[in-house]
Amino acid sequence: MRPHPDRAYDKALSGRTFRVVDNNDIVAQVPPELAFRHVAALRYIDSACRVRESMPVVSNLLDRGKERLLVEFEVRR
After folding, report:
1. Rounded to two decimals, what is the model's pTM?
2. Nearest-5° angle of CA 51, CA 13, CA 44?
3. CA–CA separation, 48 vs 51, rounded Å?
4. Calpha distance 20→18 (Å, rounded)
5. What SS3 state is found at 22?
6. In this structure, what are the phi and psi dihedrals at residue 9, rounded to the nearest 5 degrees?
7. pLDDT for the residue numbered 60
8. What is the pLDDT of residue 31?
9. Which letter does DSSP use for residue 27 in this model?
10. pLDDT < 70 stretches in the chain
């Protein structure tokens, strides 16, 4: 049985390709995982512009809220 093309891609390019997600970028959230599979290796850019290899769900939600507050206050200055 042949491997699914996205799994073969991940295996062949492991450590050389990454999915980069900026914390509030809506494009990185669509399409949903059921319709599309992103490359396996994720790099997340948090609200302090630090690159992380992982971001737990709760930390992700808190970071998004923090970024939105920072943007809101910056706009109102």
Report:
1. 0.60
2. 15
3. 9
4. 6
5. strand
6. -60, -50
7. 83
8. 65
9. G
10. 1-5, 28-36, 75-77
Residue 38's nearest CA partner among 57, 55, 17 is 17
In terms of Cα–Cα distance, which of 71, 76, 17 is closest to 43? 17
CA 68 to chain centre: 17
The two three-digit tokens of residue 29, written as one number: 């959230």
Q: Which residue has the tokens 């491997």?
A: 3
Phi-psi region of 7 (alpha: psi -120 to 50; beta: other; left: phi over 0): alpha
Q: Which residues contact 45 (CB under 8 A, 6 or more apart)?
A: 20, 21, 22, 23, 51, 52
The DSSP symbol for 3 reads P
